[in-house]
Structure formats: structure tokens, C-alpha cells
Amino acid sequence: MIAIGPTFRALLRNKVGALLLALQIALTMTVVVNAIHVISSRGDLMSRPSGLDEANQFYLTSTGYASNFNEALVVAEDLRQLRALPAVAGAIQTNATPLGSSGWSTGLSLSMDEQASGVGAAVYFVDETGLDTLGVKLIAGRNFRANEIGEREKNAIDWPSQIIVTEATAAGLFPDLSPAQVVGKSVYISSTSQTTIIGVIDRLQAPWNGWSGVERSMLIPQRTLFGSSRYFIRAQPGQLNQAMRAVQDHLDQHPQGRLIRNVRTMDETRARSYRDDQALQGVLWVTMTALVIITALGIIGMVSFNVNRRRKQIGTRRALGASRNDIIGYFMLENLLTTVVGLVLGSVSSILLNIWLVDTFNLPRIGWLYLPVAMLLLIVVGLLAVYGPARKAAAISPALATRQ
Amino acid sequence: MLVMQQLTKKFRTDDVETHALRDFNLNVNEGDFIAVTGPSGSGKTTFLTIAGLLEDFDSGSYQLDGESVQGLNDKALSRLRNEKIGFIFQSFNLIADLNLFDNVDLPLRYRGFNAAERKRRIEQSLELVGLQHRLKHLPTQLSGGQQQRVAIARALAGEPRFLLADEPTGNLDSQMAQSVMALLEQINQRGTTIVMVTHDSELAKRASRNLVIRDGRASEQVVNQRAVSQFASA
């Protein structure tokens, strides 16, 4: 028996308790909707591909300490020997890694005018094996040739005459051109050095995941002579551990006046890079779960109180022909009505909070699906919470209850 | 139409077993107005709750309107209770949060009548008890006698064949008690069978049959024929 009218009218005559519960549900919905939205947004950010073959890649830092340390020779010899290891698919010297939190960036523009509009892009120094070792995909133009790879001193300010850029960098510079049309175009690095885009790769993220230009990067065909450099190594598929052991063993056996440190996989780097986001997600999940549990307990408490308060009424309803299921249904319906009021209020406050979050923290707007999903979740939680006390109500002896 | 044979009901605690009803026999005929009396703890209320299908019994048999109630599940018992039995309680048992219309509406909703049929029956039964103009009032806005009239209207709305009344005048002053009793007699004259538990011997005398329960057993007393005929013709 569904008696929405009488049940709603009866609720209105006891509105304080029902209204407080509805407000609690509204608050819970507001927090749940926006928390799920933030969790989901962070999840989207965290799941962005870096462009690398992360599962098979690691890197380490090589720093020369010996007075006779000849970086150019040592690096060249190291890379030659590392590339010969069976578990290693590729090895390059570079200055930074995507998601690594530190690296270089510089401006690219279409003229030498410092005031000219341009885009910032992360800088990665690579050689002719860079594309394969990084695992990035060339979508237009060509790769660097071996004879195009130069050397770069620490204080150098010049830039080479050829670069490869990501598709996002190309789009930032030439919004109306396709990647293929961008190949051959001249641009200026730091408004000083003219260079030509010889290739476009699909994706290679910058080291800083929170940067709005994270998808903009460029590859520079230079070996660095900075005294300390990063070896970026790609293992054969599925042989990351073997490759890491083999590389470290090899470098340990051939010290050559340099120190090896910070050996780290790309999986670790990704985890470290998004540690704060993961922590935020965890905190929001805990907060949201706790709030839902508190709301469920509130419903259980409220319904249990109502069951005890209405024992005589329950007995009377049973005497008038209500079955046990009717009694359960009565409490379910009553709670559902309270929940619906809370959800309507919660929908409004969820949208208002989201507007504030969008304005204040530049978060994206919530998708329309969040509201019905949160409503469904809270309805299910409400019905589950009310079921226990409602069953107890249905089990009350009508013979005793009517005599109270 | 209500036949109880060798009915037994025991209540057990950890230490004590109490026979509320023992070898209880009763045959209620259509149109009877039975007053049930007896000392406190004799088993009157237990009889009434078993008769009203609110409580089960340990042994014996109980047939309501030709149908054995033994072994029926909750749904079947609820349906039987809703269709054949109307309850009147000493303390009225109106639902305080519902107005008169919604109170009387309750058993009709459980029956599954449509809205128009429910409205017709609610108005008809409230008119019978003289409260048709107070549909939207809450029970607390009525006197005790009026509340009991509403309870009677609620019991009658489904047109049950039995009315089970547990001390229906117990919470009313004598004037209101007389009024409610007159209403019950009127209902009985319209063909509804009434079984009424009462402590009031004067009211009991106005019933067509008097049943006395002592120590869980029923015995019938000779009816005051003059009182019956006097009130039957009223």
C-alpha cells in the first residue's frame, strides 16, 4: 500500500525531525557530489598519458666527481654499453623526465619580438635515439639524425637550428595548421634563436603535472655537458627489473669517476608526481564515506526513535489490516519522502557549491550525471538504513502494541 | 460464524507458565451482540486478540466465517483481519498525525479500494457517527466521545462482519458511554456482529449474549431479555 499523501501530511505535522534529517541528507549530497566531482577530476588528471612507455622505463642521475671526469667520453661510453645490454631497448642522456617535477622550459614564438605572443614549452635534450627510447610517436616530419646532435655547455645560450615539438606545442604556435603543415616552420626560442620544426610527436608531457601547458614540450638535439646528467633507459617489454639490475651492475662495475643516484622507475615517478592528488582523493573518499555513514546512522536513529514512539500506531495499523510488509513499506516510504526533500535541497546546494568552486578554484563544472547518481546512492543508503528498524517495527506484536 | 473449540493459549516466562485461555469454546452467530465480562487477568483481552487474529493460539481450532485461521501466513491473516474484522479500542487508537479522513482511510487503503470508493465510504461512515463535517480535523481537536466515534467509523468503513470492541466506553464519561453504546447497538441492528469486552455490567446487560471468562474458560450467562428487547427496539 503506497499512501504518499497521508504519509507526507503526517510528516509535515512532525516537521522538525524530518527537516533536520532532510538537511543532513542535503549536506551529505552536496559534499558527495562535489567530492566525487573533485575525485573524478583529479582522476582524469592522473590518468593522462605522459607519452612515455612508462611500464618499461626508468632513469638515474649520473654526476661526475673525479677531477679527471670527462663527461662527454663517459656518457658516450656509458650509453654505448648500456644499449648493448640484452634487457635494454634504449638509453639516452637527457635533462629531465615527464612528471619528474624539475626541468627546463622556455618560450617559443613566431618572431624575435620579446613582446610577441608565444607559448611556453618544456625542454628535453635528446639524441637521435630519443624518440624510440622515450617511446613517443612521430606523427609528422622526421627524427633527428646522428650528425645533427650537438653538445651543450652549461652556460650556453644558443639553441640548435632544428627541434621536434609535441602536437600541443605546434597547436599553440600554429592553431590553424595541421601537424604536417607545421613541419618546416621557423620559430624563435627565447625570442633569440631561430629554429625550424622538423618533426611533430603526438605527446610528451612536461615535468610539471600542475602546469596548464603540461602537454607542451620540445626535443632539442643536444648532449649536455653539465657535469651531471640523467640517463633515461627503456627496457625490453616486461624486463624492467632485469634491465634495472643490469644497468646498475654495469655502472657499478665501471665507476669512471661518477656517482650514480636517484634510480627511479617511471611508475614511481608518476606515483610521486600525483602523491598530493592521491592524498586529496583519499581524504575526500574518507570524508565522503564518513558523512554517508553518519547520515545512515542518523536515519537509523531517527527511524528507530519513530518506531519506539509509534509502537501503538504500528499495532493499530496491523489491527486495521496492515501486513508486516505494509509496516516496512510505511517506514520506507516515510524515509523516502524525507530523503527526496533532502535530495532536492541537496541538488540546489550542490550546484551552488560547484559554482563557487568553479569561480574560486577554477575547477570544471560538475557533469549532469553526478546529481542523479548521488541521488540514487543516497536513496539506496537511506532505504538500507531504514530497513533494519522497519523490520523491527513489523515484528512488533500487534496484540501488545495496541494495548499500550 | 466465529467458532472456537478447545482453544488454549499459554504465556510462558522463564519460570512461569500461565494459561490465558484453556479449553475455550465459543460459537458466535451472525448478528450477535456479545458482551464479554470477567475479572482482570481472566483472559478477556487474550480472547479478543486471538479472535481479532492479532495473536496466535497454542491448540484447538478457530474458524472465522467458515475458514480455519490455523496455519495462515501473515499476509492472509492481515487480509482476513482487514476484510472481516473491525476493531474498537478502549483508548481509541486514532493516529494523532492523521486527520479524521486519513484515519478512516487507513483500512480502506490496506484493502486496495480506489480513491473514489474510499472517499465514498469515509464520508458515509463519518456521517453515520455524526462527524462528517470534521473530516480535516485532527483527533486531538475532538472530545473523547467524538474520538471513539471516529474509531467506530474507521472500524465500519470497510463494512466488516465483526466488530471487536475492547472496553469501548472505558475511557468515556457516562453520558458519552451511553452515546457510544447506543451507536454500537444501532450498528448491531444493521447486521454487524459485535463482540465487546467490558467491565461495565450495566452495558453488558444491553448485549444479546453475555459471556463470562474466568481462569481462561468461557461460560454464558442468561441474558436479561427485558433489557435486550428494550434496547433492541430503541
UniProtKB/TrEMBL annotation, chain A:
Q: Cell membrane as a keyword?
A: yes
What keywords are assigned to this protein?
Answer: Cell membrane, Membrane, Transmembrane, Transmembrane helix
Q: Please list the residue ranges annotated as the ABC3 transporter permease C-terminal domain.
A: 287-398
The record's GO molecular-function terms, alphabetically, read: transmembrane transporter activity
Its cellular-component GO annotations read:
plasma membrane
Q: Which residues cross the membrane?
A: 282-307, 328-356, 368-387
How does this chain sit within the bilayer?
A: Multi-pass membrane protein
> Which subcellular locations apply to this protein?
Cell membrane
Which family is annotated? Belongs to the ABC-4 integral membrane protein family.
Protein name as catalogued: ABC transporter permease
What organism does the UniProt record list as the source?
Idiomarina xiamenensis 10-D-4
From TrEMBL, chain B:
**Which residue intervals define the domain ABC transporter in the entry?**
2-234
Q: Pfam families under this entry?
A: ABC_tran (PF00005)
List GO molecular-function terms, semicolon-separated: ATP binding; ATP hydrolysis activity; transmembrane transporter activity
Q: Tell me which UniProt keywords the record has, alphabetically.
A: ATP-binding, Nucleotide-binding, Transport
Name the CDD domains for this protein: ABC_MJ0796_LolCDE_FtsE
> Cross-referenced SUPFAM superfamilies, in alphabetical order?
P-loop containing nucleoside triphosphate hydrolases
List, alphabetically, the InterPro entries matched. AAA+_ATPase, ABC_transporter-like_ATP-bd, ABC_transporter-like_CS, ABC_transpr_LolD-like, MacB-like_ATP-bd, P-loop_NTPase
- Judging by the UniProt lineage, the source's domain of life is Bacteria
Cellular component aspect of the GO annotation:
plasma membrane; transmembrane transporter complex
Please tell me whether the keyword Ion transport is annotated for this protein: no
Stored PANTHER family: ABC TRANSPORTER ATP-BINDING PROTEIN YTRE, IMPORT ATP-BINDING PROTEIN
Q: Which family does it belong to?
A: Belongs to the ABC transporter superfamily. Macrolide exporter (TC 3.A.1.122) family.
Protein name, per record: ABC transporter-like protein
The organism named in the record is Idiomarina xiamenensis 10-D-4
